[in-house]
Amino acid sequence: MQITQCLHAAVLVSDLEKAEHFYGNILGLSKVERSLKYPGAWYQVGDFQVHLIIDPNAARALQNPEKWGRNPHIAFGVANLDEAKERLQAHGYESQLSASGRAALFTQDPDGNIIELSQTLVN
Known about the structure:
Blueprint: E1 8-13, H1 16-26, E2 30-32, E3 40-45, E4 48-54, E5 73-78, H2 81-90, E6 95-97, E7 104-108, E8 114-119
């Protein structure tokens, strides 16, 4: 078997409206059309997609509440980590700097799913 690319990640959310606000407005991901009949939303990030899937019991406790990066998470690259942190704070989202010392932080979506934001070089 030869895996050639990662296509998407499915994220369980309990409230689609709150999740769409977070992923679309706070993170600024681009929403794409979907043709499925069950409720949800898809967002495009380069060649990758994030699929929000409704599960009324989606909210869960962190396995490692002290170090958010040691929980299941999705990582996104950002051009400016300081701007990302300020945006999250301005909208009431907590963040935790990476314990590794690299330029990365972790935040949580409205259901407690962990999102990593890592500063990447812009060409």
